[in-house]
Amino acid sequence: MNTPDLRAAQRPPPDPLLTEIADYALTFDARARQEALDTARYCLMDSIGCALLALDFPACTKLLGPVVPGAVLSGGARVPGTAHELDPVQAAYNIGAMIRWLDYNDTWLAAEWGHPSDNLGAILAVADYLDRSAAGPRLTMEDVLAAMIKAHEIQGVLALDNSFNRVGLDHVLLVRIASTAVITAMLGGARDQVVNALSNAFVDGGALRTYRHAPNTGSRKSWAAGDACSRAVRLGLMAMSGEMGYPSALTAPGWGFQDVLFRGQAVTLSQPLGSYVMENVLFKIMVPAEFHAQTAVAAAMELHPQVRARLDGIERIVIETQEAAVRIIDKTGPLDNPADRDHCLQYMVAVPLIFGRLTAEDYEDDVAADPRIDALRAKMMVQENVKFSQDYMDPDKRAIGNAVQVFFTDGTSTDRVVVEYPIGHRRRRQEGMPLLVKKFEANVEGRLPPSQEAALRNVLSDPQALRAMNASAFMDLLAAR
Predict the structure, then answer these.
(1) What Cα–Cα distance (Å) separates residue 454 from each residue in 90, 184, 192, 478?
(2) Which of 25, 110, 114, 391 shows the smallest number of beta carbons within 10 Å?
């Protein structure tokens, strides 16, 4: 076996992965993919609703605005629902954190999971900044939708076969990578500049998943995507100023991303980049809950009428789920904060069994103090269902199955309720989209002046009008007066 010479100083050509992503970001014609454009419009609508809903939560709003008081940029990028005008780096952080805060935006499940609409924090900030800048290109919302399709695709296809979570890395590294590529292209970057920016995104490494798992689960999981968006914008701007890149950032022996952080495995694209991810993205329509639990929540709500009067007589509750859910949201013991609770499968099943609902407010301390919740959690058995795990990884299914059954001390039991596809799945698009619109309408109601709210609803319901609208005009509708 030949040992690589770590002293060799000859600069190699860029890693093929960097050039493939860069070429896609620069040349793919997303405007020709009608299904993807239609889905991107719903994704934009949903993400804006999630962002505005997050303004109801002080834990989110305390993090918004400039880095330090007074660090504003007149004519800069706006932050939805606020009066903030910021440089695009900080605006990307704000918008990204708001969209992600309540774990209610779209998601993608594969070997790696994640939330592709997280990238919209960077895309909207840069689009608004460029469109308002005298030096920047005028951008339309069609440009924004096309950028969304590309960011979804880069993040989602990288997630198909590369399981970063298994080496302890957090999926927000894919937000940084996808946003960096798309933002640098939006800024007018040439191929070398996009490659340079991407290389720096990989050199940044990946955040640990510490903050997503017991015993350290915390609110960083709600602002980590915003942080990744802001870093992507900074790297794109640096590349545009002529900052160099690192061509073998992934493959350098001993020092590259793959050897240092990915146990020597190659980071690969399992299929050509197109519009697959946007067309198959998963929407969180019914409840704000970690997506592996969505169908378990649906099953629990179906069981609520049968158990609500018999809570004291429950002996045990059996939850069958996928391997991924067992690994990341099967959680026992005390839950210290809302971020802890919305990533606990047992909590997300207990609340609808008791109340017949699960809202963002149900993760707050006052609801969590109800002793019945922890009493039910203590009676739950979580186990992997191998078929659910197989169907979860099947590219033709991408199911997210869960089953819940309640057993009583008198020897009786409920039916075993199985739900394989959540309402936000592509297989349930026709059923789900009207409900997604209702979710958006509920989330924005009363959070903007009535005239802006009406105009926002109108343009988002009109695909042609939306695509023709300038990005800054769209952001005008979201700005607090």
Answers:
(1) 28, 33, 43, 11
(2) 391
Peptide bond into 215 cis (omega under 30): yes
Quick one: which H or E segment has residue 377? helix 371-377
436: Cα within 13 Å, side-chain hemisphere: 29
Report, in this order, helix, strand and coil percent for the chain, each rounded to 5. Answer: 55, 10, 35
Could you tell me the maximum CA-CA distance found in the chain, to the nearest angstrom? Answer: 75
Q: What are the helix and strand counts (H, E) for the chain?
A: 22, 8
The 3-state DSSP class for residue 316 equals strand
* Residue 388 contacts residue 322 (beta carbons within 8 Å): yes
Q: Apex CA 457: angle with CA 452 and CA 460, to 5°? A: 120
- The residues, ordered by sequence, that sit 6+ positions from 353 with a Cβ below 8 Å of its Cβ are 300, 303, 304, 307, 308, 311, 317, 376, 406
Q: What is the pLDDT along the chain (481 residues), one digit of tens a residue?
A: 455 565 667 889 999 999 999 999 999 999 999 999 999 999 999 999 999 999 999 999 999 999 999 999 999 999 999 999 999 999 999 999 999 999 899 999 888 989 999 999 999 999 999 999 977 788 999 999 999 999 999 999 999 999 999 999 999 999 999 999 999 999 999 999 999 999 999 999 988 999 998 889 899 999 999 999 999 999 999 999 999 999 999 999 999 999 999 999 999 999 999 999 999 999 999 888 889 999 999 999 999 999 999 999 999 999 999 999 999 899 999 999 998 999 999 999 999 999 999 999 999 999 999 999 999 999 999 999 999 999 998 888 889 999 999 999 999 999 999 999 999 898 999 899 999 999 999 999 999 999 999 999 999 999 999 999 999 999 999 999 7
**Are residues 199 and 249 in contact, defined by beta-carbon separation less than 8 angstroms?**
yes
Is 472 within 8 Å of 132 (Cβ atoms)?
Answer: yes
Residue 52 is encoded by which pair of tokens? 């505005």
Choose among 364, 90, 85: nearest CA to 223: 90
Task: Write out the two tokens for 332.
Answer: 């026992």
DSSP assignment of 57-124: -HHHHTT-S-SSTT---TTSEE-TTS--EE-HHHHHHHHHHHHHTTS-S-BEESSSEE-GGGGHHHHH
Contact (Cβ atoms closer than 8 angstroms) between residue 267 and residue 257:
yes
Beta-strand relationship, 380-384 and 314-321? parallel
